[in-house]
Amino acid sequence: MHKKAFIIAILLIALGGGGYWWYANQTGAGERYKTPEEADAYVRFDMEAYDIILANFWKKSSDAELADLFRLSLAKAANINPDALALPTADREGTVKILAAAFAKTEGEQKKQLALDTLIVALYNLPPVGRSGLLSSGQVTDLRNEEKNIDPASNLYQDLGVQKSASADEVNDAFEEKKATLSASTSPQAKAALEQATYAHQVLADADSKARYDEAKVEPTVFDRVLRGGTLYLYVEKISPTTLAEFAASVLNASTTPALDSMIIDLRGNIGGTLDVAQYFLGLFLGANQYSFDLFHQDDYQAQRTAINALPELKRYREVAVITDGMTQSSAEVITAALKRFRLARVVGTPTRGWGTVENTFPLKTSIGTETYSLLLVHSITLRDDNQPIEGRGVDPDVNTSDPKWKKELSTYFRSRSLVDALSQEATQPPLR
After folding, report:
1. In 122-261, where do the E strands start and end?
2. How far apart are CA 77 and CA 120, in angstroms?
3. What topology is assigned to 151-218 in CATH?
4. 3-class state of residue 178 by DSSP
5. CA distance 158 to 166
6. What are the extents of the domains in the chain?
């Protein structure tokens, strides 16, 4: 099995693409909309968002509930008493009328800002509060780069003082020279610069990670090392489209190392990322087309299945431990909960953060200026191993390292002496990069 077979780049962030919720038919009288008021682009802008929320938000809402949210949001944006702003009818049509009446009292930039602020307030107050929002085109680009672990501003070659065309030997020589210089200094700045140079060398000295960086500035998400006694340690810093290929490559590269029979997957500080990767990642352990986890969307439990064959090289690892902390979140929590549910791994650490939402982007077709906007909307809620929402609860460890006697509990869950020793040493120390 060749590791390139596992290079799969799938983005969770959707681009909308389905039918739009307002219509425009060409007639002799011009464009026609759901309501006459929506001939005004500002009213149409907010109402297009209203329809997207109603159809795609994770929580099933009634017209009356959403109409009242927009009423309160308009009152907040316009700085008026909400008691003085009444809906003619508690539905979509009533929302259109109060928006049209408010916008008719303003014009120009003030009108545009009122439409934007009304929508921003409405999105912010969707539960969980602060998780949904309105993004500009630039912010959508930043979000996608973050998801793919791309930092457009980074220059790892510059960190080492070499050109992009530098050979492997030149990269190594530059690092050794910089290391010698910076190690001689005790200043905090020199220490930070040495850490960055070490990281740059780590990325550029590996052919695979260098190729990904050279192509699209994609930085590594998986860092591996073999610990004494027979444990493979994998620090997964983030979940991105390249994580699956990196993880598989680490396992395959270790396949020729003798006596490895246990594994640590360190997810501490992992903020998650692309949820689709979870179905592929779990497939490495479970095999293809196996139930992996559920998503909850508008009163419906949606079973997710694995999307890739099992990786045979994982069979040698008889025991697997996942290390978590309070900053393990999002898709990293989904993976943790699934590995725990199927007893593929035991969890050591502290409860995860409890960030159990899946956000998608939905572009707005209506334009109210030169900028284009998209809704960032919570589309689904993730569930943990006991079918309770991860949101606000997190995933509980089997062995909680905040317990003073946690080291003694390790032997209850693990037989491997190497794994117990590794966890005793590493579970409360910073992740190994």
Report:
1. 133-136, 222-227, 231-236
2. 9
3. Helix Hairpins (1.10.287)
4. helix
5. 11
6. 151-218
**pTM for this one?**
0.86
* Helix 92-103 / helix 108-124 crossing angle, nearest 10 deg: 140
Whole-angstrom distance, CA of residue 113 vs CA of residue 102: 12
**Which stretch of DSSP H or E encloses residue 373?**
strand 373-382
Task: Read off the amino acid at residue 239.
Answer: I
Read off the tokens for 431.
């992740």
Mean pLDDT of the chain: 91
- β-sheet bridge partners, residue 389: 383
**Long-range contacts of the stretch 242-245 (C-beta < 8 A, 24+):** 242/7, 242/9, 242/148, 242/149, 242/212, 242/218, 243/273, 243/274, 243/277, 243/281, 244/6, 244/7, 244/8, 244/277, 244/280, 244/281, 244/284, 244/308, 245/3, 245/4, 245/6, 245/7, 245/8
Tell me the pLDDT tens digit for each residue of 313-370.
999 999 999 999 999 999 999 999 999 999 999 999 999 999 999 999 999 999 999 9
Return d(Cα 18, Cα 16) in angstroms, integer: 6
CB of 222 within 8 A of CB of 246? yes
